[in-house]
Amino acid sequence: MSINWNVLTRKTHYWASLAILLPAMVIIGSGVVLQLKKDVHWIQPVTQRGADNPPQISFEEILAAARSVEEAEITDWDDIDRLDVRPDRGMLKIRSLNRWEIQIDTASAEILQVAYRRSDLIETIHDGSFFHDNIKLWVFFPTAIVLFLMWLTGVYLFVIPFIARKKKRERLERKAALGT
Asked: Taking the model in full, what pTM does it have?
């Protein structure tokens, strides 16, 4: 029994698209939003600029500045998700566990901006970890593999007509050459 690659490729492409419909929609939709994170301030706050001096504040001053922002609900270091130091901009970002971002000047500990940061939430939706780590591993990862397989079958389906036309042209040319 021989395999008809055209039929197999079309069926694979068809059924795979149905199998990954929902997770692929989440991945693509959140990916589109993430592409805009530097342009849409609702997604990710604009990075401010502090003094052009090298960082001069202590960790105690960083924590004190973070505690002064009520929205962030920071009382100690356990309430801080991460610090992002930008020496070239003279500022430091403090991200709280509740997704509030505080930007402070690294020379004076002055608060430059306080804003809610949605990009991290959107990233967790994009990679599937928002739903559950097992969903990330057992749904979103296979979706990526199937999406790659669909890309391969799509390229194959796209190229087939060109190959068929070339073969037909060569066959007609051979036939014409033999007929003269």
From this structure: 0.74
Asked if the structure places residue 1 within a domain, the reply is no
Task: Please state, in angstroms and rounded to a whole number, the distance separating the CA atoms of residues 44 and 93.
Answer: 12
Task: Tell me the Cα Rg of the chain.
Answer: 27
Domain that holds residue 132: 7-42+126-170
Give the number of other CB atoms < 10 A from CB of residue 42. Answer: 12
The pLDDT of residue 176: 87
Q: What is the pLDDT of residue 54?
A: 83
For residue 31, give the nearest of 118, 123, 120 by alpha carbon: 123
Structure tokens at 42: 């609702």
Establish if 179 belongs to a structural domain: no
Please count the other Cβ atoms lying within 10 Å of the Cβ belonging to residue 78: 7
Percentage of residues of the chain with pLDDT beyond 70: 99
CATH number of the domain residue 60 falls in: 3.10.450
Q: Which residues pair with 102 in a beta bridge?
A: 94, 114
